[in-house]
Amino acid sequence: MMSSATLIRRAAPVLACIGLLAVWQVASLALKNDSFPTAIDAIRAIPDILGDKESLINILASLRRMAIGFGVAVLVSIPLGLLMGRSRSVAAFFNPLLMVIYPVPKAALMPIIMLWLGVGDVTKTLVIFLGVSLPVIYHSFEGAKAVEEKMLWSGAAMGLSPARRLVRIVLPAALPEILTGCRTGLVLALITMITSEMIARQSGAGNILFNALDMGQYDTVFAMIIIVGAMGICLDAIFERVRARLVRWSEPQFDMPLSFS
Amino acid sequence: MTVVPARSSEWVRPVRSQEPASAIIEIDRVSQVFQTSARKDHVALSDISLTIEEGAFVSILGPSGCGKSTLLYIVGGFVSPTSGSAKIKGHAITRPGPDRGPVFQEFALFPWKTVLGNVMYGPRQQGVRAAEAEAQSLALIEMVGLKGYESFYPKELSGGMKQRVALARTLAYHPEVLLMDEPFGALDAHTRTRLQNDLLNIWERDRKTVLFVTHSVDEAVFLSDKVVMMSKSPGRIREVIDIDLPRPRRRNELLLDPRYQKYIVDIERMFDESDEAGQAS
Ligand SMILES: Nc1ncnc2c1ncn2[C@@H]1O[C@H](COP(=O)(O)OP(=O)(O)OP(=O)(O)O)[C@@H](O)[C@H]1O
Ligand SMILES: [Mg+2]
């Protein structure tokens, strides 16, 4: 049996989605604007997109670039962030570099990268890579810095070399923080994926969206927005499951409600 | 827990073995100066010299902030002293090693490992086969009274339980010297007494050298061959007192022993005197 509290928690996201669609439906009926289709019209357009082979190939190509960009970024950023967190000289070397890149919107770099690498997959994947790297580096860095010194001392007394301490102690100890960074990175990967395809129109989910916009097919535009949004929700939910499993040992035992009434 | 009934013959046994004891740890004129954030020098330890014999149980007793932990870290090789030197078996201590096993005041357990995982960590690190390491670790966990908690994570344990896991984790890799920083400070009186007895049993069995930091005068007298009394600001050795009480020690007998009582009274009086001297200056 599910308790009523669990039931409410499970139902809440579904209710939120239904609520949002209802507000949308009412608003678009009230506004009667051509460029603002009703929620029902937008949803009706979804099967057409997903049923079309060309569109499907485009969306899958987007997801592939996103996966590669995200994966490579995580593989590079975690070791770099951990090293920066444990070594002052590594941090001193990379910090200024990262501070230069951090505030620049990664999509703004695209035109330059396109000049070097063309408008193909490499450019778009590289932009996703850049977008994902920074939050992952930052959170890995903070996580590694916060590792309790006595834990490292305990490892040293057991005979772990500095390199092994980084892998066997700093990495697991910082994992909750690292995964927070990865979660932010995943959302950013989706955002940069779409923006990169907006700038370099050639293929991808972003390409479908902006082409439809140019042609005034607003049903398709909003259907694509729903599809991308759903992708975001699914990816985040999958990631959250993996995360919760990996760091079960660190989750707080007691939920602290915001109000005590 | 193994409570062996005291036989009178054991009381006749000499306090220490007859063979000449050799020094295992030599601390020679060690000072430790910290830079505080206000950019002032803070002398935590001043001119500490101390020799610890192999197999001895030595307690360090002193007020909070007198540098007990710092001294332990220096022997552990975690901190290098500002001046002076520390040696183990004649070799200068430059870094930590499995010959010296620390039990920290803050436990420092690995939160991502279960109780069993924590205790097995050291032996596994030293290449002990998994099955063997597990069997040894389970025995240690039982010894510290945590049977049934093997699969618990540190966050699921009370403070006293964490402390016991920390002790088991260090014992598991058989260091020659145990460096214990107020290991029983957070425990209730009952568990504390039990663990003191267990520690003495282990120590009497394999005669590890123990350097034991504590706030408690009777704990120091009960456990030790030697009590090092420290004073504060700057941290100095005030007195080193040999505790000539027979072993194995039984708490119920010792509590009635006038010699034991006298040690406690004497040490407490010395601390009171230094308090008064401190207030007068
Ligand atoms: N990393 C540090 N930086 C600056 N000062 C320090 C540092 N570590 C310790 N000290 C200072 O050195 C002194 C001794 O500290 P220590 O932790 O060794 O004391 P202690 O005797 O173990 O105290 P307690 O019984 O409370 O654990 C204290 O005055 C403390 O403020
Ligand atoms: Mg201390």
From TrEMBL, chain A:
The keyword Transport applies. Its main location: membrane. Keywords: Cell membrane, Membrane, Transmembrane, Transmembrane helix, Transport. Residues 59-239 form the ABC transmembrane type-1 domain. GO terms for cellular component: plasma membrane. InterPro entries: MetI-like (IPR000515), MetI-like_sf (IPR035906). The keyword Repeat does not apply. One of its GO terms (biological process) is transmembrane transport. It is a multi-pass membrane protein. The chain crosses the membrane at residues 66-85, 97-119, 220-239. It is found in: Cell membrane. Belongs to the binding-protein-dependent transport system permease family. PANTHER family: ABC TRANSPORTER PERMEASE PROTEIN MJ0413-RELATED, ALKANE SULFONATE ABC TRANSPORTER-RELATED, MEMBRANE SUBUNIT. This is NitT/TauT family transport system permease protein.
Automatic annotation (TrEMBL), chain B:
It comes from the Bacteria. Gene3D superfamilies: P-loop containing nucleotide triphosphate hydrolases. PROSITE patterns: ABC_TRANSPORTER_1 (PS00211), ABC_TRANSPORTER_2 (PS50893). It holds the Pfam family ABC_tran. GO terms for molecular function: ATP binding; ATP hydrolysis activity. Residues 28-257 form the ABC transporter domain. CDD domains: ABC_NrtD_SsuB_transporters. Keywords: ATP-binding, Nucleotide-binding, Transport. Belongs to the ABC transporter superfamily. Involved in beta-(1-->2)glucan export. Transmembrane domains (TMD) form a pore in the inner membrane and the ATP-binding domain (NBD) is responsible for energy generation. This is NitT/TauT family transport system ATP-binding protein. It comes from Bradyrhizobium shewense.
